[in-house]
């Protein structure tokens, strides 16, 4: 199935839930008549960044920082590059991805999408931030459809995709349960859903840290980014006294350290889970055969 056929058969209007139809430069709802434009090859369902504007900024400054084809070397112990992280966090095999319609839920700049694209029949990438445009530039191939849209109201019909994965995204949604339920809804019955969400972190979830984070995340993102640019040097200086500096990313790749430190402090929403909580959520939302990866909390399951 190509992208045009997919839009006509498997997309729905987020406003009235009726089918969408493609035209040359736009897509139109057959129910309410709403038009959604293609902009720089991206189908824009949500022009507004809503609560993810800090992600737009971080990705515009880091479009290639974690992209394997642009020379990414992972700065964290236990992983080599994005392909290695993808395998460990989704547990998906290339056989499973082969000739499938796959959803990358929260694609960012497309670091994981570029790994899946060669084997997918069609890869549908969704992100609410302006990173969606960067993902399209990285992946101009015909078997990729990039949508700027909201995972809490996915513009796809039920069971539209064979496989869905979401890496480091659902814990950032305003309503994570809704985002989980939407990704599962658009996955076909018997299809695979896998991904990774933040594990509980005693330090990050301390009342005082949450209060500070609440204030810090309100700082103008470009000012906060400049402060985060100091992170690698500050970490090196403090490392002489402390083993770990919890407020700063542990990545040994300086660009990644700045990116992840900013990501961590600037995001508007962040939730932490353990296996039991994810198991309960997945079961309640109709998933079975739940398995776990080595990165907490990474999971792979089947939709009933
Ligand atoms: C930490 S980034 C991860 C991006 C990518 N999966 C990766 O690992 O590089 C989280 C992404 O989730 C996106 N995001 C957060 N909430 C979203 C929502 N409700 N709908 C769509 N995207 C969302 C952000 O825009 C951001 O690009
Ligand atoms: Zn409509």
Structure explained in plain terms:
The protein folds into 2 domains: 166 residues, Vaccinia Virus protein VP39 (Rossmann fold), CATH 3.40.50; 60 residues, no CATH class. It is 33% helix and 20% strand. The chain is globular and about 60 Å long. The protein has an 11-stranded mixed β-sheet, with helices on both faces. It is of the alpha/beta class. Bound molecules: S-adenosylmethionine and zinc ion. Zinc ion (ZN) binds next to loops.
The proportion of residues in beta strands is 15-25%
Q: What's the SSE pattern?
A: HEEEEHHHEHEHEEHEHHHHHEE
**What small molecules accompany the polymer chains?**
S-adenosylmethionine, zinc ion
Shape: globular
CATH topology of the largest domain: Rossmann fold
Biggest sheet, spatial arrangement of strands:
1-2-3-4-7-6-5-8-9-11-10
Mean pLDDT over all positions: 96
Distance N to C terminus: 24 Å
CATH class of the largest domain: Alpha Beta
The Cα radius of gyration reads 19 Å
Low-confidence stretches: none
């Amino acid at each position: 199935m190509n992208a045009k056929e997919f839009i006509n058969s498997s997309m729905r209007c987020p406003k009235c839930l009726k089918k969408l139809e493609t035209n040359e430069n736009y897509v139109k709802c057959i129910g309410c008549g709403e038009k959604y434009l293609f902009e720089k090859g991206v189908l824009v369902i949500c022009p507004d960044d809503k609560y993810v504007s800090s992600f737009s900024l971080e990705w515009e400054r880091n479009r290639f920082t974690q992209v394997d084809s642009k020379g990414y070397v992972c700065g964290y112990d236990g992983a080599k590059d994005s392909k290695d992280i993808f395998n460990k966090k989704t547990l998906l095999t290339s056989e499973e991805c082969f000739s499938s319609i796959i959803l990358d839920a929260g694609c960012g700049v497309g670091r994981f999408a570029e790994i899946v694209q060669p084997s997918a029949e069609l890869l549908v990438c969704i992100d609410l931030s302006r990173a969606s445009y960067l993902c399209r530039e990285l992946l101009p191939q015909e078997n990729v459809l990039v949508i700027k849209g909201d995972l809490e109201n996915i513009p796809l019909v039920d069971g539209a995709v064979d496989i869905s994965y979401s890496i480091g995204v659902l814990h950032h949604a305003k309503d994570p349960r809704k985002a989980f339920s939407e990704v599962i809804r658009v996955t076909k019955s018997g299809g695979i859903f896998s991904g990774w969400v933040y594990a509980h972190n005693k330090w990050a979830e301390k009342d005082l840290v949450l209060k500070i984070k609440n204030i810090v995340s309100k700082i103008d993102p470009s000012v906060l980014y400049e402060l985060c640019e100091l992170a690698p040097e500050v970490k090196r200086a403090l490392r002489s006294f402390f083993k770990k500096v919890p407020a700063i990313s542990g990545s040994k790749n300086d660009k990644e350290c700045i990116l992840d430190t900013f990501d961590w402090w600037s995001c508007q929403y962040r939730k932490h889970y353990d296996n039991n909580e994810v198991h309960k959520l997945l079961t309640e939302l109709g998933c079975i055969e739940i398995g776990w990866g080595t990165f907490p909390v990474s999971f792979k399951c089947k939709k009933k």
